[in-house]
Amino acid sequence: MKxxxxxxxxxxxxxxxxKDDNGAVTEAKVSExxxxxxxxxxxxxxxxxxxxxxxxxxxxxxxxxxxxxPSALSDAALKEIEANxxxxxxxxxxxxxxxxxxxxxxxxxxxxxxxxxASVSGRLQCLAENVH
Amino acid sequence: xxxxxxxLLFALFLPLGLYSxxxxxxxxxxxxxxxAGHAEDGGVISELAGNFGITWPTLIAQMVNFCIVxxxxxxxxxxxxxxxxxxxxxxxxxxxxxxxEMKAQLAAAERERAEKIKEAAVDAQRILNESREQSKEMIxxxxxxxxxxxxxxxxxxxxxxxxxxxxxxxxxxxEVARLVVATSSKVLSRDLSDTExxxxxxxxxxxxxxxxx
Lengths: 132, 213
What we know:
The complex is a heterodimer of chains A (132) and B (213). Chain A is α+β, with helices and mostly antiparallel strands. Chain A folds into two domains: 2-61; 64-131, no CATH class. In chain A, 57% of the residues lie in helices and 18% in strands. Chain A has helices at residues 2-17, 27-40, 45-62, 75-89, 120-131; strands at residues 64-69, 94-99, 106-111, 114-119. Chain B is mainly α and 213 residues long. Chain B has two domains: 2-89; 90-182. Chain B is rod-shaped. Chain B starts with a helix and ends with a helix. The A-B interface holds A 67, 69-74, 77-78, 80-81, 83-85, 87-88, 101, 104-107, 109, 116, 118-121, 124-125, 127-129, 131-132 and B 170, 173-174, 176-178, 180-181, 184-185, 188-189, 192, 194, 196-198, 200-202, 204-213.
């Protein structure tokens, strides 16, 4: 139990080290951290790596806005979304598009566990729920 | 008993009296004879007594004996018999009195029995009336309860029907909404052109981008 706690703290520390000056997780920083881990040769190397991977995915998800849309969005729109959510959450957020034809039209943005829906299907669903 | 004793004494002294009377008669006859000069047929009783050997000393002795026997008999025979007879008479009198008392008690008991029967009849009538009233009240109460239960059952059935109706209405609404949504989705995805979709998506992206501000 104590060991898990230490590993968790280490993984969180490694995630913090994986961020650049802006607080964004970058590939270069992650490579540096992995190289450092390779040199250190921790006793529970695999466990530390698994824990680090989990926290890293969570952090990446928190820093990524998955924009689902049936058709491609313009770069300007994506930039606006990134700027808006970066400002809203107080951390750097990058937008990633995901094509989803079931939305019919509009966009649905997911940041971590938060979902912002401005799609036609979402509005129809909301309408159906209101009818209930 | 005393009368019996007196009778015995009378019977005892009767011959003595007769004898004395005879003597007087003899004396009077003697006097008459003396006066009339020697009658021929006088002193028959004296002669008869003389023939039977009755003399004054013997008679007195017999009288004394008889008195003694009578006293002894009275003392040891008559008196206990009299006492026994008196006791028996007393018992008979007591028995008769007891019978009279019993008769009176029987009459009193008969009267009491009649009164009790009368009271019992009155009580029975009263209990019967009360039972009738209670049964009538119970019937009314049960009727009211049955009516209340029937009303409750009807009310519950109405509520159940209303709930069922609301449930069906809700299901119909859900189904209609689902169909509307499905139909709208199909119609929109078929009828909207790619340009319209892109325009709507851009507009929605801008809407989301400006939502936090």
